[in-house]
């Protein structure tokens, strides 16, 4: 799997993370980053690829892929990491063909175990945890620690059997701290805190927290250079930087804008920006989400998006009244409105500050007329 020219390598962050894991005192890290900001690309194409080049076995598993059988998915990922195939080939196969049925052990004979990821397996939980422990023991290598890259791990917090899986995983990793190093990622700080900061959680204080650093002007410069090589068209750097900042430095949105300009050579850059924004809103169904909220929920979403008010204090109350024309409810009621947004996956706490979960939705909300609350 050749590295795409469009991939922007986060070289300093990759180096520092790799050194901290393989030569530092920590056995695990938890990496937070908002949705669609490049966490998975960093894991697969930066940290994972870097470790593989230095001879470390690398395991990747995304818990978005199955909420039914996360333990079976993890067993599959360890089994794949143990096979004598290149890291690039395994990643390419994983991304093209997410597993549905997996086979652990020899291809034939009594030692083979077949697991259907579409079926619930509560009765086999204990046996599967023992199997996982055994496989992790085979993967561990104190001389060159194996890297476990576990994506969107907050899904384990609500998965059936998730507590038992996390407890078994911690035991297995604790026993092999020199031979196994882990990076957990998540797009919800509430979800990650539930796993790593709650005293009753099996992974309590197991991982050192990290935050995915934002991309800066160098990313824009890199993307414009690749765009020029591919499409033989130069774009205005200032306009590109302005669009990049409009969507909070989101790499996926920026690349989509570039592809729009590449497909439609005569389209002006500003027109492509509006077309890209409209297309994203349609694809992600922001209108449907917005209309599914009641007025008080939309008002609180707008206040969170603006980030300039204490949503539960006096400034938040004044902004609520300005948006709705109604008397602001008491702080406890406004807190319940925000918790409703959180239950719907629309709000989250970032460093104790409530914000909208999706930066793209946040930008869309801010660009709506205030009167539409």
If you had to describe this structure to a student in words, what would you say it looks like?
It is a single chain. This protein is of the alpha/beta class. The protein has 3 domains: 11-211, 3-Layer(aba) Sandwich (Rossmann fold); 217-283; 286-372, Winged helix-like DNA-binding domain superfamily/Winged helix DNA-binding domain (Arc Repressor Mutant, subunit A), CATH 1.10.10.10. The protein has 16 helices and 9 strands. Mean pLDDT is 89; it is low at 104-113.
Kindly report the spatial arrangement of strands forming the biggest sheet.
2-5-6-1-7
What's the CATH C level of the largest domain? Alpha Beta
| Number of helices, where a helix is a run of at least 4 consecutive DSSP H or I residues | 16
Distance between the termini: 47 Å
Structural class: alpha/beta
Task: Put the structure in a nutshell.
With 373 residues, this protein is of the alpha/beta class. It has three domains: 11-211, 3-Layer(aba) Sandwich (Rossmann fold), CATH 3.40.50.300; 217-283; 286-372, Orthogonal Bundle (Arc Repressor Mutant, subunit A).
Describe the SSE topology:
Blueprint: H1 11-23, E1 28-32, H2 39-53, E2 58-62, H3 70-82, H4 87-96, E3 101-104, E4 113-116, H5 125-139, E5 146-151, H6 162-175, E6 180-186, H7 189-196, E7 208-211, H8 217-231, H9 237-246, H10 251-263, H11 269-283, H12 286-291, H13 295-306, H14 314-324, H15 331-343, E8 347-350, E9 353-356, H16 359-366
Parallel strand pairs: 1-6, 1-7, 2-5, 5-6
Antiparallel strand pairs: 3-4, 8-9
Helix pairs in contact: 1-2, 3-5, 5-6, 8-9, 8-10, 10-11, 13-14, 13-15, 13-16
């Amino acid at each position: 799997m050749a590295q795409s020219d469009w991939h922007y390598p986060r070289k300093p962050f990759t180096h520092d993370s790799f050194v901290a894991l393989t030569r530092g005192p920590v056995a695990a890290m938890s990496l937070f980053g908002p949705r669609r900001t490049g966490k998975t690309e960093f894991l697969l194409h930066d940290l994972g690829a870097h470790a593989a080049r230095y001879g470390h076995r690398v395991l990747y598993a995304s818990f978005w892929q199955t909420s039914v059988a996360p333990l079976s998915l993890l067993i599959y990922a360890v089994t794949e990491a143990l096979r004598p195939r290149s890291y690039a080939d395994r990643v390419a196969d994983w991304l093209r063909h997410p597993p549905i049925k997996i086979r652990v052990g020899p291809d034939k004979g009594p030692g083979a175990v077949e697991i259907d990821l579409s079926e619930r397996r509560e009765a086999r939980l204990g046996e599967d945890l023992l199997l996982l422990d055994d496989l992790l023991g085979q993967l561990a290598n104190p001389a060159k620690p194996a890297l476990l890259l576990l994506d969107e791990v907050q899904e384990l917090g609500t998965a059936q059997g998730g507590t038992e899986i996390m407890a078994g995983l911690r035991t297995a990793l604790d026993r092999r701290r020199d031979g196994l190093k882990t990076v957990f990622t998540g797009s919800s700080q509430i979800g990650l805190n539930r796993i790593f900061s709650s005293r009753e959680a099996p992974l309590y204080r197991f991982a050192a927290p990290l935050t995915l650093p934002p991309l800066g002007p160098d990313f824009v410069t890199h993307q414009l250079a690749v765009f020029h090589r591919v499409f033989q068209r130069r774009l205005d750097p200032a306009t590109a930087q302005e669009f990049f900042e409009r969507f909070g430095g989101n790499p996926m949105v920026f690349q989509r804008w570039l592809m729009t300009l590449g497909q439609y050579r005569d389209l002006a850059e500003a027109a492509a920006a509006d077309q890209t924004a409209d297309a994203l809103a349609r694809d992600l169904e922001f209108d449907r989400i917005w209309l599914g909220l009641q007025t008080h929920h939309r008002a609180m979403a707008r206040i969170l998006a603006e980030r300039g008010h204490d949503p539960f204090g006096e400034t938040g109350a004044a902004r609520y009244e300005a948006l709705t024309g109604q008397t602001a409810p008491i702080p406890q009621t406004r807190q319940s409105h925000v918790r409703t947004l959180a239950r719907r996956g629309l709000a989250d706490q970032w460093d104790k500050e409530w914000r909208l979960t999706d930066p793209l939705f946040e930008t869309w909300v801010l660009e709506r007329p205030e009167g539409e609350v």
